[in-house]
């Protein structure tokens, strides 16, 4: 099932890039934007260059973050550019004529669907999110992952503006925003961007280690007693993004299949130094 869903995700994402973005001369953030810029200077096909870029990130990820993290991006690092090559051979364009506004919108929607499906199954394409993790671990451990990711994407978009012109950069910004909103919509419908995850488990140590070390999130643990059984268990409390909530649920399912996981949508969270909005700001 994972393979089929990831194949669907790659097909939708490759279609967005090859059949919408490239024919309309647009760009984007992340690895796609980097390859788009390099293609302007180098005489190679987009899918070929994307393949090389994805494999480079995969190798660096395996070295710096470990094989466990590399496994999360392995499948899409190979499948995505392969499907992209297939769409290049088809030479199909969605829009009948060049329209940058429609292209920016639909490219964002289809790319967001691709990422949303992949994230919901615990996979990643190995783009700017992986690069952000590498930078955080090796260079800037005190900077939050979300800020690094935003900085990388914005930097690529700004650089696109110098190469292709300001208008292209602005269209790329629209595409990036739509991608983000579509991912949220795929994962949790019209829900908020912050969720509270509660886990009642008999293996709190293993799960807490995963949350703190692999996801770089804080976790609280409290003792609870079941009214029916009278047994004492541990409850873990985590505040995170919807995507991280999905990853936590998938890990818990493997670590403790008998655990109880509750996910609650949160409107707002304030807390200085915790990666959320500052508590002293309006």
Features:
four-stranded antiparallel beta sheet, 62% helix, 4 strands, alpha+beta, 10 helices, single chain, Alpha-Beta Plaits, 2 domains, 282 residues, elongated
Describe the structure.
- By secondary structure, the chain is α+β, with helices and mostly antiparallel strands.
- The protein folds into 2 domains: 187 residues, no CATH class; 73 residues, Alpha-Beta Plaits, CATH 3.30.70.120.
- The chain has 10 helices and 4 strands, in the order ααααααααβαββαβ.
- A 4-stranded antiparallel beta sheet has the order 2-3-1-4, with helices on one face.
- The longest helix is centred in the first third of the chain and has 24 residues.
- It is elongated and about 70 Å long.
- It starts with a helix and ends in a 16-residue tail after the last strand.
- InterPro entries: DUF2179, N-reg_PII/ATP_PRibTrfase_C, UPF0750_membrane, YitT.
- Pfam families: DUF2179, YitT_membrane.
- It is found in: Cell membrane.
- It is a multi-pass membrane protein.
């Amino acid at each position: 099932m994972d393979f089929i869903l990831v194949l669907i995700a790659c097909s939708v994402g490759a279609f967005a890039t090859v059949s919408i973005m490239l024919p309309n001369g647009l760009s984007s953030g992340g690895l796609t934007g980097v390859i788009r810029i390099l293609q302007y200077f180098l005489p190679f096909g987009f899918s070929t260059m994307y393949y090389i870029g994805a494999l480079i990130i995969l190798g660096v990820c395996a070295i710096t973050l470990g094989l466990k993290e590399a496994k999360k991006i392995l499948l899409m690092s190979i499948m995505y550019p392969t499907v992209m090559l297939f769409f290049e051979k088809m030479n199909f364009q969605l829009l009948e004529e060049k329209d940058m506004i429609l292209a920016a919108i639909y490219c964002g929607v289809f790319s967001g669907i691709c990422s949303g499906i992949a994230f919901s199954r615990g996979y990643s394409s190995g783009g700017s999110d992986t690069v952000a993790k590498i930078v955080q671990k090796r260079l800037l451990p005190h900077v939050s992952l979300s800020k690094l990711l935003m900085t990388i994407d914005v930097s690529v978009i700004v650089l696109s503006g110098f190469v292709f012109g300001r208008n292209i950069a602005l269209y790329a910004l629209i595409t990036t925003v739509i991608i983000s909103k579509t991912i949220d919509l795929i994962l949790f419908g019209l829900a908020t961007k912050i969720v509270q995850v509660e886990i009642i488990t008999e293996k709190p140590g293993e799960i807490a280690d995963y949350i703190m070390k692999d996801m770089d999130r804080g976790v609280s643990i409290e003792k609870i007693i079941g009214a029916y059984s009278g047994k004492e268990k541990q409850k873990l409390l985590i505040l995170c993004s919807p995507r991280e909530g999905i990853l936590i649920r998938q890990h818990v399912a493997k670590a403790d299949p008998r655990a109880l996981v509750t996910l609650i949508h949160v409107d707002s969270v304030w807390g200085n130094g915790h990666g959320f909005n500052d508590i002293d700001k309006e």
